[in-house]
Amino acid sequence: MKFGHVRIKRRYVYLGAALLLLLGAGLYIYWRFEPSAHFKRTDIPILATPEADLPSTGPQSGVTKPGSPQTPAKANDSSRQHSFNILILGTDARSQELSRTDVIMLAHVNPDRHTVNLISIPRDTRVHINGVGYTKINHAHVLGEMNGGGTHSGTQATIQAVSNLFSSSINYYIKTDFEGFEHFIDTLGGLDVYLEQPVKLTYGHKTFPAGDNHLSGAEALDLVRERKSLPGGDTSRQANQAMVLKEIVRTVIKPQNLKSLPSLISQVREDILDTNLSDNDMISLAWMVQEVKEDGFQYVQLPGYNGRAMDPLVKSELYYWMPDMEEWATSSQHLLED
């Protein structure tokens, strides 16, 4: 009888030990990856702050005079918000050729509030680049590569151009190319998107119908690149790019994919050209996005108007998107400040 009692007690001991281990593992995972806690412990990097020697705002200059550089909250400063900016870039290169940035988006992330503000920047936006003058923002990547240092210099030049444009610090970046984008979508098993109206591909001899569509990697790339057939031209393309980005995140955090998150993170490393986000950063961001409610996600496009001006690089007149920074300051600047 005593021996039976000993065995029962041992079972309780083992059960208690197992529960303690599970509790400890859960607390460790929460401590390590919970978004707010993770980024409060992280010394958030500052990749670029606005340059102080840019021209003041002038007629159709398309830039605004930078103010004091914004400094992200440090991990040990609990009195400040731990928000940060992530620059998302998609380049048009398929090999080792010099490349322009076909997709430029700035995401302002606040892990404490579980909010993501996404700002789409037209690739034809007219900005001032030191040593060059006023040119298209997607030329910054090419200029950086030409100045030496390869694709990393191109990334840094684009980061600086966006920092100057918004008078804001840039903390993280993610950059991919056509091939990497296609492959990652295919790794996810394709992408489900909803289209408000049909999209006819200018060069693909195909039309995506209105309603639900399941896209392969190549089809998703065709969608985010299409411009000419869309009623709003580049404005509609930017909206489609934001929609696809949102659906990629939603797909990654589906319950059936969360169990494969470590392998997906590894796949991201293979498919993107470059990022300064760590694996833990990406896991924490995926966790945070899963908790973002519909009103916690805001999307805007950089306000402005169509215009033409001389370009110092090609020595001829080009089409530009002239950013209206006064309108930006009035309507949307707060999206980078919360």
Automatic annotation (TrEMBL):
Entry superkingdom: Bacteria
Pfam families: LytR_cpsA_psr (PF03816)
Region (Disordered): 50-79
Ranges annotated as spanning the membrane: 12-31
Comp. bias regions, Polar residues: 57-79
UniProt entry tagged with the keyword Membrane: yes
Keyword annotations: Membrane, Transmembrane, Transmembrane helix
Domain spans labelled Cell envelope-related transcriptional attenuator: 100-252
Stated family: Belongs to the LytR/CpsA/Psr (LCP) family.
Name of protein: Cell envelope-related transcriptional attenuator domain-containing protein
Gene source species: Paenibacillus aceti
Lineage, opening ranks: Bacteria, Bacillati, Bacillota, Bacilli, Bacillales
